Amino acid sequence: MSNDKDNQILIEDDFFLPFYGKLNKENRWIVMSQLIPWEKFQDKYSANFKEGNGTVPFSVRVALGTLIIKEIEGFSDRATVSHISENPFMQYFLGFSGFNQEEPFDASLITHFRHRLGAEIINEVNEMISIEAAKKAIDCENKKNKKNKKNDKNPPSDVSGNSTGEGTASAPENQGNLLLDATCAPADIKYPTDLNLLNEAREKLEEMIDELHSPNAGKKSKPRTYRNKARKEFLRVTKQRRVKSAVMRKAIAKQLGYVSRNLKSVNKLLEENGFENLSNKKLQELWVITELFRQQKLMYDSKTHSVDDRIVSISQPHVRPIVRGKANAATEFGAKVAISVVNGYAFIDELSWDAFNEGAKLKDSVEEYHRRFGFYPKAVIADKLYRNRENLNYLNALGIRLTGPKLGRPTESASKEQKILERQDASIRNEVEGKFGEGKRRYGLGRIMAKLDNTGRTVVAMQFLVMNLRKRVGLIFYLIYRWLFYRLQSQLSAPA
Fold this sequence. Notes:
Helix content is about 50%, strand content about 10%. By secondary structure, it is α/β, with parallel strands linked by helices. A hairpin with a 7-residue loop joins strand 2 and strand 3 (about 330-340). The two termini are about 55 Å apart.
């Protein structure tokens, strides 16, 4: 399928569609294609290719558009390619010049699309399509507030204990509300336990011993692994419904011994036969298992259950435990994401596989708001974790109100008004919780299927991009239908 026009602005009438006539201009994929400035990101995307490899790379429109289709529809990689070959609107969205029933590329290329785009480019696209729409919503809200102030002779006073900035030089510059919160995007891994991790490490080391010993078969005796005995001891404990702590500790000690023995055997075989007898994937696993054994031995000796940079998956060593304190999941395993929401549009402020305190990121989020919109917010809507003395002093200096009561003992005079204000803030804050719910139920934020560090970040960033895209497309259709409704209403009410 030709892609020489991928970066040009296509017109619906120019798209070749045999037997079907012309494309419907109101289709969601056509509307969505006009919202994204594809050509502005081509240079950044092209910089990830090596020159002289003999292949003609697909454009950023094909790469990014394919990932958008996949996340919006919830398809697998193979299903995404199949649906693209069957849908002319999707092919137009990707920038192809005409409809072709052949698959445009192999499904394995989608993994390379995630690699080459990265979370940085995805976040830039998200900001470019969302900031303008959010700013227009802020302007509309300001106009409504000005009209209400003219009609209201006794405006309510602020009882939160934070300065609103009225009467200061910076007060007119503060506009809009900034909603802050954080969540965990769980990775697709098996729930980790110390015993299961050590058993998996032992089995992988046994495979390495078999592979490294094969060139010397018949010359030297194979190192002992006691795999059958180790397997029986593991099953004897793991099949029990309830395991006492003393029994579990003894089982972990035995598995540590088997892993230690196998590690010494693998290292000895590598010295004798060379590292070229193991694949890069196996060498990576060996490094991870070595670090996993060190961490497990340290926790066993110190009788603790925590260690810095704890490995919870051998196949995904970048995943970390994130303590959430929720009723259904006290600890989740994945990436922690801190976002800011402005008038329904979500932006990623921090994305890390390591746990962090989102309250310490408030200053960065407020400064990012200023960078995006050119002014500071009137209020920051967040939970109690963000409410500390350092953040309060910072926001008071900028004339920004932070939700919640002021520090210290509450006064009786402000209690009623404070409760009203807290209820209003809680209703506003539901919007950011709704974004997390939408991402985890409707899209793939509830389980990140990508296996690598950078592709996992790309997938997380894609979730918020497609949510903002869907919001903008829905708003466009709403405005179109509202215009048609008022036009029809005026025609019906006009005298004959």
